[in-house]
């Protein structure tokens, strides 16, 4: 691995610096030898982004995504670490499965892969998975989630929070009360769902579960993370819980920050996702909450799907959309350019906060000599029209296709190695 010399970059705090990289760490520029040069004049250098919520589909659905392609999409999006969700085939519910995934990632990944274990065996919602063994395994699992499914049974959720607490792990919940909507619910319950003849999820299907879970977090003293929060009601519950000192964090996806229920009018199943895209009042609520820190971080919920799982009537197509490559673009568009978040704020919401979630030692760190060399070089003013066929992902369910958006990621460096450069 060659040394790097990155010249003229501006850091998030506004200061300028030349950065040397050697042996995976930042060093003084004078300490590099035979370095590959990157001219970063006019560019921002931010710590590598960390995604708390990625679906990599390997093992099980390598036709939709692999660890190699998903983490290449991550690198193109400025990410140096992703947390790999457990709804794989086989489900990551044993120490062996967690170690297998970690070993596979060590061979093929273009970013650090942090293994998430499931909360329950087979995501069935009944018996706890081998949480303790997964934690003690070589994969050192510190986050558990049945994401894709909500842990509906409150006693199971209470036990998971209580047990995880003993080894400082966090339970990440897909907050969606399936009993508050019919089995065919597939979009936000609203005037539009009525007009389109689609069964809807009310906002309260989300906020009711969040309310229950923050009470269980309080009761157990465990750590709760709320995945992909999408409603004004959900945000209000988080605000209330934090004011009471409950140990809770929340994430919002780029698509819930940017896209709305109106996209569904085309019946294009690219826009089918859980939780569903919402109306303007909800979009405004999640933007405001990300700005004021009520929502702690951005999580992409990158959910690749093959055409044969999307080319169906809206109510039976699989939910999910990809997001790793355009996540920073969306945050720049709706938060930074709108004056709602400054660059230190972006670093916190997209790197430091998600790294704290699972206590990562080498990610979400400042750009400084001696620190691990994880960074993204950003051109904040570049723009481009998104082309889904230019994606590193194996899947094409890109909801930003054809839109004019920021195109910020010039280069990504993970552990001293250039994983993307345009
Ligand atoms: N978000 C989605 O609509 N789908 C996700 C699962 C999930 O995050 O709930 C998937 O795995 O496809
Ligand atoms: Zn989910
Ligand atoms: Zn997900």
From TrEMBL:
What name is this protein filed under?
Dihydroorotase
Named cofactor requirement(s): Zn(2+)
**What are the UniProt keywords, alphabetically?**
Hydrolase, Metal-binding, Pyrimidine biosynthesis, Zinc
Q: Which InterPro entries match?
A: DHOase (IPR004722), DHOase/Allantoinase_Hydrolase (IPR050138), DHOase_cat (IPR024403), Dihydroorotase_CS (IPR002195), Metal-dep_hydrolase_composite (IPR011059), Metal_Hydrolase (IPR032466)
According to its UniProt entry, one GO biological process term is: purine nucleobase catabolic process
Reaction catalysed?
Answer: (S)-dihydroorotate + H2O = N-carbamoyl-L-aspartate + H(+)
Paste the cofactor note.
Binds 2 Zn(2+) ions per subunit.
Tell me the residue numbers annotated for binding Zn(2+) 2. 147, 174, 228
What family, per the record? Belongs to the metallo-dependent hydrolases superfamily. DHOase family. Class I DHOase subfamily.
* Pathway(s) this gene product operates in, as recorded in its UniProt entry: Pyrimidine metabolism; UMP biosynthesis via de novo pathway; (S)-dihydroorotate from bicarbonate: step 3/3
Location of the region described as Disordered in the Swiss-Prot/TrEMBL record: 387-406
Q: What does the entry list as the binding residues for Zn(2+) 1? A: 53, 55, 147, 301
| Pfam families hit by this protein | DHOase
Annotated Gene Ontology cellular components are: cytoplasm
Q: Where does substrate bind?
A: 55-57, 87, 274, 305, 319-320
Residues forming the Dihydroorotase catalytic domain are 44-233
Key word Zinc present: yes
Cross-referenced Gene3D superfamilies, in alphabetical order?
A: Metal-dependent hydrolases (3.20.20.140), Urease, subunit C, domain 1 (2.30.40.10)
């Amino acid at each position: 691995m060659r040394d790097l010399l990155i010249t003229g970059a501006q850091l998030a705090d506004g200061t300028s610096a030349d950065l040397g990289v050697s042996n995976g760490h930042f060093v003084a520029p004078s300490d590099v030898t035979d370095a590959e040069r990157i001219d970063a004049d006019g560019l921002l250098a931010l710590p590598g982004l960390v995604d708390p919520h990625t679906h990599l589909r390997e093992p099980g659905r390598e036709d939709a995504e692999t660890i190699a392609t998903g983490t290449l999409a991550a690198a193109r999006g400025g990410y140096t670490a992703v947390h790999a969700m457990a709804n794989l085939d086989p489900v990551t519910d044993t120490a062996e499965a967690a170690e297998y995934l970690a070993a596979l990632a060590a061979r093929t990944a273009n970013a650090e892969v942090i293994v998430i274990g499931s909360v329950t065996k087979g995501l069935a919602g009944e018996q706890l998975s081998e949480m303790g063994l997964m934690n003690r395994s070589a994969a050192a699992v510190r986050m558990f989630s049945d994401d894709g499914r909500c842990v509906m049974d409150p006693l199971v959720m209470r036990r998971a929070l209580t047990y995880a607490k003993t080894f400082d792990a966090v339970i990440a919940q897909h907050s969606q009360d399936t009993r508050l909507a019919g089995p065919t619910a597939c979009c936000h319950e609203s005037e539009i769902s009525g007009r389109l003849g689609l069964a809807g999820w009310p906002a309260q299907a989300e906020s009711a579960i969040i309310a229950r879970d923050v009470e269980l977090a309080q009761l157990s003293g465990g750590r709760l993370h709320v995945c992909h929060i999408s409603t004004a009601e959900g945000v209000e519950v988080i605000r209330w819980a934090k004011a009471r000192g409950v140990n809770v964090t929340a994430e919002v996806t780029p698509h819930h920050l940017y896209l709305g229920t109106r996209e569904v009018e085309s019946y294009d199943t690219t826009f089918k996702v859980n939780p569903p895209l919402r109306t303007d009042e909800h979009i405004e609520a999640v933007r405001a909450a990300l700005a004021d820190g009520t929502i702690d971080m951005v999580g992409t919920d990158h959910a690749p799907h093959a055409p044969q799982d999307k080319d169906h009537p809206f109510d039976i197509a699989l939910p999910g959309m990809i997001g790793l490559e355009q996540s920073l673009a969306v945050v720049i568009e709706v938060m930074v350019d709108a004056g709602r978040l400054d660059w230190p704020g972006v670093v916190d919401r997209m790197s430091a906060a998600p790294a704290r979630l699972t206590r990562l030692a080498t990610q979400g760190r400042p750009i400084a000599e001696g620190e691990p060399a994880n960074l993204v070089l950003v051109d904040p003013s570049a723009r481009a029209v998104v082309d889904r066929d230019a994606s590193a992902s194996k899947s094409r369910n890109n909801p930003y296709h054809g839109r004019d958006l920021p195109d910020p990621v010039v280069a990504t460096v993970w552990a001293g190695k250039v994983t993307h450069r345009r």
